[in-house]
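thread: overnight batch results

M.L. [08:02]
morning all. the overnight job finished for the chain we discussed friday. pasting input first so we're all looking at the same thing
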Amino acid sequence: MVCSFVYEFVKVKVPQYLADLPLSKTTEELSKMNPDEMIFLGSVTVTALFILLGLWSMVPGGARVSKRINNKIQLDKDKVADTIPIPEAMATAGKDQLVMCRCWKSKNFPYCDGSHNAHNKATGDNVGPLIIKK
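M.L. [08:03]
and the structure it wrote out:
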């Protein structure tokens, strides 16, 4: 019963429906369409776009944006946590301040290398580093 319905719909109804659409092969034919045909064709096009966008959003990696922030640092761990004693870190850096990464993009993690600037420009985000001063 279900198979015959699907077969009828896909093999008979859809082709008949598509054959009845007022599609134009040239811009000249398009300019000769009456307003009712143009409205009908426009509504079919918009409906088809919404259906395609809906289907695309269900595809892994389609319209969905990954909710994961960290895509490269210590991915084998359940939680990334680094402990750095402040005096030792200051001596290692040789500076009066430490600039720590908060965007997960630094090639020198856990220290900031300015990678957040490209991330912010690409995404409209406003993430920046944690700055620790003496």
